[in-house]
Structures
1.
Amino acid sequence: QVQLVESGGGLVQAGDSLRLSCAASGRTDSTYAMAWFRQAPEKDREFVARVEWSTGTTYYADSVKGRFTISGDSDKKSGYLHMEALKLEDTAVYYCATMEYGEGKWKYWGQGTRVTVSS
C-alpha cells in the first residue's frame, strides 16, 4: 500500500506561481511513476503531468506544457508540481497518483488539494 498526501494548494492570482507537493509513504519501492491530475468544477478529471522515476522521463498535457514542471525526490517519497503563469482555467482540485511496476493503471491516489486562480 502507498499513501499519498497532497499539499500546497491555495488561492492565487492569474500569472502567479504555486508549487504543489505530494508526500508518499508506505511501500514506495514498487512505484514506477507519479502523476498529477486535476478536476475542475463540473468537469471530468484530466491528466496534467507524469514522471517515470527510473528514467526521469516526463509528460505533460498540452494545456500546461511550458508552464508546469513535475519533479520529485529520487527516493520516490516526494513529488512536486511547480506551476507558473497560472490561468483562470487552472482552477481545480489537483490530485497526485502513483503507478506500480507492471501495472498499467494509476493505483494509488491522494485526497487532492484545491487550487483557485482569480483574476
Note: The chain is about 0% helix and 55% strand.
2.
Amino acid sequence: QVQVVESGGGLVQPGGSLRLSCAASGFIFYIDAMAWYRQAPGKQRDLVASVTNDGETNYAESVKGRFTIAATPAKNTTVLTLQMNSLKAEDTAVYYCNARAQSRIFWGQGTQVTVSS
C-alpha cells in the first residue's frame, strides 16, 4: 500500500504563484511514476503533469511553461511538488496527486486551488 497526502492549496490572484506538495509513504520502493491531476466543477479529472522514476516529465498543453513538476526522494517518503506560476482563473480546480506502484494507482484526497481576484 502507498499513502498519498497533498497540501499547499489555497486562494491566489490571477498571475500569482502557488506550490503544491504531495507526500507518498508506505511501499514507496515500488513507485515508478507520480502525477498531478485536477478536476474543475462539472468536468472530468484531467492530467496536469507527471514524472517517472527515470525523470521523464509530461505536461498538459495548457500548463506548459507555467507549471513545473518535481519528485524528491527522502527518508521513508517521496515528495512530489507542483510549482504553479502565472496562474489563471481556468486553473481553479481540486488538484489530486497520485502514485503508481505495481500497476496500481493510489490517490490523495485532493487540495483546492482557487484563482480569483
Note: The mean pLDDT is 95.
3.
Amino acid sequence: QVQLVESGGGLVQAGGSLRLSCAASGTIFSINVMGWYRQAPGKQRELVAAITSGGSTNYADSVKGRFTISRDNAKNTVYLQMNSLKPEDTAVYYCNANVRRTDWRVYDYWGQGTQVTVSS
C-alpha cells in the first residue's frame, strides 16, 4: 500500500505565504507525476500545479507567478510554496501521486487533504 501524508495548511492573511508538504511512503518503486489539487466549497476539484520526476512543471493560470511546486525524489516528497495568497485561494488542498508500486502496478493516490484559509 501507498500513503500520502500532507502538512502545512492553516490560516493566513491575504498577501501571506504558506508551504505545503506531501510525503509518499509504502510499496513504491517510482513516482512519475506528483501534484497538488484544491477544492473550494461548492466547486469542483481543480489542478493547482504538477511536477514530473524530471522536474517539468505545470501550473493553473490562477497561481502562475505566485505558487512554486518542487519535489525531492529521494524523499518521495512534493512541496507547494504559496506566496501572495488571496482569499480565492481558500480551499482544501490535496496531494496526488502517480505511483508505480513494487508489484509493478500503477495507481493514482491521494492525500487526506489540508485546509488553507486566506482571510481578507
Note: The radius of gyration is 14 Å.
